[in-house]
Design brief:
This protein has about 675 residues and is mainly β. Among the domains are: about 190 residues, Pectate Lyase C-like, CATH 2.160.20.10; about 190 residues, no CATH class; about 90 residues, Sandwich (Immunoglobulin-like), CATH 2.60.40. Helix content is about 10%, strand content about 40%. The chain has a 20-stranded mixed beta sheet, with no helix packed on it.
Length: about 675
């Protein structure tokens, strides 16, 4: 290799090295431009007196390139700002750099990743303060937000940080957002402090939250970590219809509620709650004792979710949104508790077969509230001075409400809405708006109650039927009853009788089912007219019923299918018939269904028929079910299997048969004639 070749080779190596260095420098420069918050990034200025400064934040954002900073001098800015690129918004002084929306939907909307916002005050009564939508890895730090809800909204936004921010009359909302970090914030006087819904894996740490309805509200949310928060005059609320919304969280004892430890327990069998608890949340727990606590000014004093067999006893709960709340929980006992000045003293939601007994609920909005639940016992409670109803059941059935003293409530004493087959027995109901109030509620028993001095109606029925109302005392109510338009029973027959009405003016000189026999029987001789001539109590008592009554029992009705016999072959429209019987009442209806179809009411009750058009089903075996109903419950189902055969029968064609027969006869006659002719010819020969 010559000297010239060596020089050329050296130059080639240097050229390649220079190219590589230039490439690396260029790449590094691009990365610097893309990263947020780099101090060397260009800065655009808003406000102030400098030459070339922008007069609006939006104009500066529009002019900025990704990675730039927008510095906002102190002042008041009325505009709605859209940040759709990676940059930093930096206020000169968080107390003096003030933004409002100018009557828009939001003050700041961020739709880009890696945005930093700091040093601002955002205030607007009617707009969202700061919203991140589909924005990840953003940082919100050291700002002030007042009024408006939510103050900060993260929507479909992940891996963001919200720190060192002051919220007044405002709060934080996360929806469909995961892996966010919320820490060292101060929140006060909001409906929700921090509200997270349909989200997961978020962290809430070292926040101070005060004087809100709910400090931290987790709705349909999983795997949230909550540590070292200080909550004053509020607490934590969990909500959701799946177990994981309750037991998947990490909520440590480092959280403080009103100066005491927040007690959250999940997946525990057997135990007790320590006496220094400031709030109690049990998730998927059983056989835990919650006893002797005083819980005041908390979002929910005692909350159970997906828990069973626990005892809540001798606690004082006051000034809370809910005093004691059960959701998706069964077979728990709530006994000897005192609740006052709560929104709802005791509430059960989707919770079955619980006992609520010997509790006192005073000065609440609603005393005892039971929704979408079955088979609960509410017994011997005192409910008074509620701003709304004393005791409410809605979309609930099979509950026993007995021996309760419900008086002096601004709304109804006992209200049933869309509820059936409950028993309201031996209660004292006085000085309420309506004593007993039923809306769209069927097949309930109202018996043995003292309904006295209620301001409007003693008992009010609206679109409710099949209820049995007997042996109650209706005394000095402004209007004794509103019966509604559907059929109910106001007596249970003779001699058990109807009700005592303080305004009944009849006499007792006769006795017997038709009140036509000699001698008195304590029942008025003429019915008590409830509504003109249409609704009557046929057996009104002359004197108040002696209370309490013995517990009412209801025997299950019977139902039979008497024809056709099982296995019969049927076709076309076939009449199914049967009988029904109730030993202590009447049959209200009989229903049948075919296979897995809908129940259909028959014609008749104690003797019933059902015309079954079998052309609507396929040929083959089908099961027909029947059941009766006595106004309170159904009989056991009875069934038979029948064979449907609607195959068209072969039509006999008599015309062709006649032709064939005629042809056969003609042939036979011809053969006979031929034989005769042959014989005659032989004789002639």
């Amino acid at each position: 290799m010559g000297q010239k070749d060596v020089v050329v080779e050296c130059l080639d190596k240097k050229s390649r090295l220079i190219v590589c260095l230039l490439f690396l420098v260029g790449t590094f420069h691009v990365v610097l431009l893309a990263l947020p918050g780099i101090v060397t990034a260009p800065t655009l200025y808003v406000g102030g007196s400098g030459p070339g400064n922008y007069t609006t934040i939006q104009s500066a954002v529009d002019a900025a390139s990704p990675g730039d900073s927008v510095f906002i001098f102190a002042g008041t800015y009325e505009e709605s700002v859209l940040v759709n690129k990676t940059l930093s918004l930096v206020g000169e002084d968080k107390d003096l750099t003030i933004l409002g929306s100018g009557s828009k939907l939001y003050v700041i909307l961020v739709t880009a990743d890696w945005v930093n916002i700091t040093g601002l005050t955002i205030t607007d009564k009617w707009a969202v303060g700061l919203e991140l939508e589909n924005a990840d890895n953003c940082t919100i730090d050291s700002i002030v937000i007042s009024q408006g809800y939510p103050g900060v909204h993260l929507k479909h936004s992940n891996y963001n940080s919200l720190t060192n921010t002051f919220f007044t009359k405002s709060g934080i909302l996360l929806s469909h957002s995961n892996n966010n970090w919320i820490s060292n914030n101060w929140l006060s006087n909001s409906f929700y402090g921090i509200h997270i819904r349909d989200s997961g894996d978020n962290s809430i740490a070292s926040n101070v939250i005060s004087d809100s309805w709910y400090g931290i509200y987790l709705q349909d949310t999983t795997t949230t970590t909550i540590t070292s928060n200080v909550l004053t005059n509020n607490g934590i609320l969990l909500e959701g219809n799946s177990l994981e919304y309750w037991n998947s969280h990490t909520i440590g004892s480092s959280n403080i509620v009103n100066g005491r430890t927040l007690y959250y327990s999940s997946n525990v069998i057997h135990g007790s709650v320590p006496s220094n608890a400031g709030q109690v949340i049990l998730a998927n727990c059983s056989n835990v004792l919650v006893e002797g606590l005083s819980l005041s000014n908390v979002s929910l004093g005692i909350q159970l979710g997906f828990s069973s067999g626990n005892v809540i006893s001798d606690n004082l709960v006051s000034g809370n949104f809910d005093g004691i709340s059960l959701a998706y929980s069964e077979n728990n006992t709530i006994i000897h508790n005192a609740a006052s000045e709560n929104q709802e003293a005791i509430s059960l939601f989707y919770s079955d077969n619980n006992t609520v007994k010997n509790n006192t609920a005073l000065y609440s909005t609603v005393g005892i509230n039971i929704g979408r639940s079955f088979g609960n016992v509410v017994e011997s409670n005192i409910v008074s001075m509620s701003r709304s109803a004393g005791l409410i059941l809605y979309f609930s059935e099979g509950s026993w409400l007995s021996g309760n003293n419900i008086h002096g409530n601004d709304g109804h004493g006992i209200a049933l809405h869309y509820s059936k087959e409950n028993q309201i027995v031996n209660n004292s109901i006085s000085n309420n708006s309506h004593g007993i109030h039923l809306i769209n509620s069927d097949s309930n028993v109202v018996s043995g109650n003292s309904v006295t001095s209620n301001r409007f109606y003693g008992i009010y029925l609206w679109d409710s039927g099949g209820n049995l109302i007997f042996q109650n005392n209706f005394v000095n109510n402004s209007i004794q009853t509103h019966p509604g338009t559907r059929t109910n029973s106001w007596s249970s027959g003779y001699p058990s009788g109807g009700n005592f009405w303080s305004d009944y003016e009849g006499v007792d000189e006769k006795n017997g089912p038709f009140q036509d026999g000699p001698g008195r029987d304590g029942i008025g001789d003429v019915p008590y007219v409830i509504q003109e001539s249409f609704v009557k109590d046929w057996y009104p008592f002359m004197k108040p019923v002696k209370l309490p009554l013995e517990p009412f029992t209801d025997n299950i009705p019977l139902c039979n299918i008497t024809g056709p016999p099982a296995g019969a072959e049927i076709h076309g429209t076939h009449i199914i018939f049967g009988t029904a019987f109730d030993s202590d009442g009447i049959i209200w209806a009989v229903e049948v269904r075919i296979d897995d179809g809908e129940w259909v009411q028959t014609d008749g009750t104690t003797s019933w028929t059902f015309p079954w058009n079998t052309s609507h089903v396929s040929d083959g075996k089908h099961t027909l079910y029947a059941r009766s109903h006595d106004g309170f419950r159904y009989s056991n189902e009875v069934s038979i299997i029948l064979l449907v055969d609607n195959t068209p029968k072969a039509q006999e064609d008599w015309f062709w048969e006649a032709i064939l027969l005629l042809a056969a006869m003609v042939s036979l006659n011809l053969i006979t004639i031929r034989l005769l002719l042959r014989g005659w010819r032989r004789k002639q020969r």
